Amino acid sequence: MKPQSLVMLFHAIGRAEDTNYKDAITVEAFDRALTWLQSHYRVVAIDEIAARRAADQDIKGLAALTFDDNHRSVLEIGLPLVAARGLPATWYLMTAALAGEGFWRRKVTGIVASGQEAAFRAFLSSEAPEILEGLRPGKFYRDSKDPARVSVPRMVELLQAFDPGSGPEPDFVTPGEVASMALPGISLGNHSNRHMVMSGLTAEQQRADLGTASEALSHFPQTKSRLFCVPFGGAKTYNAATLEATAATGLSGLAVTAVGLVAADDLTQHPLLASETYGGQAVVRCLTPALVLD
């Protein structure tokens, strides 16, 4: 039985080894997903689903398409395929990376892939032993983003100090490329400035991060989503301060990621789109037809 309604979330289009995204979806699978979606639903913008849910209106038969992060394959492959079918979609961007700052999660994966974890741990032992304490053996990737184990803002600073030479991600889009995008039905959205776990930041830090991102996005000509797409998106990655920061930034709600996700080619097994009102704002749970993020 297909879900009554759903939101599809994608990160990169292509092979995982080519995109640096373990949850990338191949072009062929992405095209099949669009075909399946069109045959079962009326595709609308995610903001329409959020608004209907907030107003307690029926969303049966509706679906939405969203993309997270700044990968160039979204611009070059994903969005043109969506627009060619006459479908709307929303692309949630990280604005620090858009401005050319190295993406700190890439620094983490780079340390692991290049065999530098021991060197980084040695660096932490002298520079920040309290951070080192929170990084369990074999759990470096997971623990490095967990605010229950480390101060994520401090981790970001230390990663930059350890690898100061890294610049913009070559496979991420530039501001000029986004500004010149002229595809019908495509809107942009706030995916934070630096993509940290929001619940690990103070209320002031959250307001500053969201405000910086919204201000940066305001300079682009495309329509803007009124939802904040929460980095990582799990239930523990946002809190009441996130909703307060969202409201202070002029946004109307959160888009987060549901649990129990399934593989790209088994779309019929997606659970129902769930939604709740939290602090007076709509929380929309997005589903992904790619691999589950840990």
Write the layout of secondary structure elements.
Blueprint: E1 6-10, H1 16-19, H2 27-40, E2 42-43, H3 46-54, E3 62-68, H4 72-84, E4 89-93, H5 95-98, H6 104-113, H7 117-127, H8 129-133, H9 140-143, H10 152-162, H11 175-179, E5 186-190, H12 203-217, E6 224-229, H13 240-248, E7 253-257, E8 275-278, E9 281-286
Parallel strand pairs: 1-3, 2-3, 3-4, 4-5, 5-6, 6-7, 7-9
Antiparallel strand pairs: 8-9
Question: How would you describe the overall organization of this protein?
Answer:
This protein has 294 residues and is of the alpha/beta class. Helices cover 39% and strands 15% of the residues. It has 13 helices and nine strands. The longest helix has 15 residues. It is globular and about 55 Å long. The two termini are 27 Å apart. The C terminus is likely disordered.
